[in-house]
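Technical annex, item 7. During the second reporting period the consortium partners agreed on a shared format for inverse folding records so that results from different sites could be compared directly. Each record opens with the tokenized structure and is followed by the designed sequence. A conforming record, contributed by the partner at site C, is shown below for reference.
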């Protein structure tokens, strides 16, 4: 396995890095499997990264496999060296990385605020509660459906008309369903078995109104588009088999209710006030305008803060809110209200000094480090691709030397013209990986006096596979 492959795997889980917190108590000092300059990799950190890796199906680590542990540690060390290189190049000051780290901070602060201030109840449930919830939420029946999702009501009506004339879902799905749905759903629009209560809300009543084998008579609008759907089959769900899943869902529901109560109270305490005229002016903005023109206007205000039209458009540029021209008045109010609510939560979190929490610091550092490595791949790899011209003879040579890769099960060989671009992409990827391997080798040489591995601690470090969560129905 190349250094590049190892680093890609290890860097995907950089968010598992934990901040080391010193304490005046007599707690045992953590042990370390390695040190990269001033970055220490503790046994706990190493174990957590390994468990995250094994969740993805990575099979090169085993409980007693010394070589595999060393291989994985090499990947972590290479990742840390790339982070140092990213910092040295100042990539952490790139606006894209800074914005994403800030987004991570905001999400972590809101979640911590919920944990500290909102989630104080008992979220256990009795068997009777679970059974009632199971039935009320319509998790007790599931349906197997087939969908064609169109981007307009007119197209959906055309689909219904053609179905009435004898054409099939299989024939019309590739012609009418949006590209996103064609990639997301199974062949011919089959969604598979899904509990009725898990369906998109606009679909629940229509599904309950028709029998198996029937097609709903009207298009149903959801956030994905206009659905034309058919129920292929319907069956009851076994409560006993779904018991653990139902218990988790009810717990989430109870927690969500407490969160909602807390947020409403927080808004009340901060005196959140809407300014309707400014919202109307924002909605009148032309679809092609990306910044608020002229003097700014306050959409929502609260004790110590406000959300302006300019703020809203800045969120839109960052893909955090839809353009006001694309929303009706109710949807725009909801979107702006949500942004204001999140700002109030951040204000409260800072007031409680939650940003000093070690877990939050760890999440920010992990996200930043992961982005630094990704950005280095982009810069170094793409630069190498630009410098190396791939000749047509090389592409043809790869094809001729690897005909088995392009041979179908029936013995026929894919036409060269059809696989030309995929071969070119593969050669570019090889160039990118080679450039990153070279950079890692250079960094290992540069920092060889500042990297230490502690083999005795590594040898006695036990790596255990994480328990797989039981899937619904199993």
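Designed sequence (site C submission):
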């Amino acid at each position: 396995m190349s250094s590049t492959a190892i680093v890609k795997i290890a860097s995907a889980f950089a968010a598992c890095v934990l901040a080391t917190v010193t304490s005046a108590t007599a707690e045992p000092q953590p042990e370390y499997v390695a040190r990269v300059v001033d970055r220490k990799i503790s046994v706990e950190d190493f174990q957590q990264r390994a468990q995250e890796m094994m969740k993805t199906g990575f099979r090169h680590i085993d409980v007693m496999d010394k070589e595999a542990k060393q291989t994985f540690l090499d990947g972590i060390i290479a990742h840390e060296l790339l982070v140092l290189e990213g910092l040295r190049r100042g990539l952490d000051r790139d606006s894209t990385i800074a914005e994403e780290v800030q987004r991570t901070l905001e999400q972590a602060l809101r979640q911590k605020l919920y944990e500290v201030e909102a989630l104080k109840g008992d979220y256990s449930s009795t068997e009777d509660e679970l059974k009632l919830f199971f039935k009320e939420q319509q998790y007790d029946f599931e349906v197997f459906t087939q969908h064609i999702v169109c981007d307009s009501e007119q197209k959906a009506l055309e689909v219904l008309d053609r179905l009435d004339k004898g054409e099939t879902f299989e024939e019309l799905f590739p012609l009418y369903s949006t590209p996103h749905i064609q990639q997301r759903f199974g062949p011919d629009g089959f969604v598979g078995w899904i509990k009725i209560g898990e369906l998109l809300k606009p679909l629940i009543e229509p599904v309950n109104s028709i029998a198996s084998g029937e097609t709903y008579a009207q298009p149903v609008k959801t956030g994905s588009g206009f659905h034309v759907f058919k129920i292929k089959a319907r069956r009851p769900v076994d409560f006993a088999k779904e018991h653990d899943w139902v218990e988790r869902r009810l717990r989430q529901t109870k927690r969500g209710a407490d969160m909602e109560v807390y947020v409403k109270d927080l808004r009340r305490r901060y005196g959140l006030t809407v300014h309707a005229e400014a919202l109307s002016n924002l909605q009148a903005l032309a679809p092609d305008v990306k910044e608020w023109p002229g003097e700014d206007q306050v959409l929502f205000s609260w004790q110590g803060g406000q959300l302006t039209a300019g703020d809203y458009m800045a969120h839109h540029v960052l893909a955090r809110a839809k353009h006001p021209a694309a929303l009706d008045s109710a949807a725009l109010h909801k979107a702006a209200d949500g942004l204001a609510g999140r700002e109030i939560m951040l204000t409260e979190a800072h007031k409680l000094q939650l940003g000093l929490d070690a877990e939050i610091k760890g999440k920010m550092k992990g996200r930043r480090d992961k982005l630094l490595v990704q950005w280095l791949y982009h810069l170094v790899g793409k630069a190498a691709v630009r410098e190396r011209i791939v000749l047509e003879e090389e592409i043809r040579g790869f094809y001729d030397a690897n005909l088995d890769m392009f041979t179908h099960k029936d013995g026929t060989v894919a036409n060269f013209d059809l696989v030309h671009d995929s071969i070119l992409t593969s050669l570019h990827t090889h160039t990118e990986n080679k450039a990153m391997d070279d950079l890692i080798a250079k960094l290992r040489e540069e920092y060889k006096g500042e990297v230490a591995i502690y083999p005795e601690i590594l040898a006695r470090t036990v790596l255990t596979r994480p328990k797989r969560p039981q899937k619904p129905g199993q």
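The beta strands are 32-36, 39-42, 141-150, 190-195, 220-222, 225-236, 273-274, 298-302, 305-308, 451-453. Confidence is low (pLDDT under 50) at residues 5-27, 469-474. All partners now use this format for quarterly exchanges.
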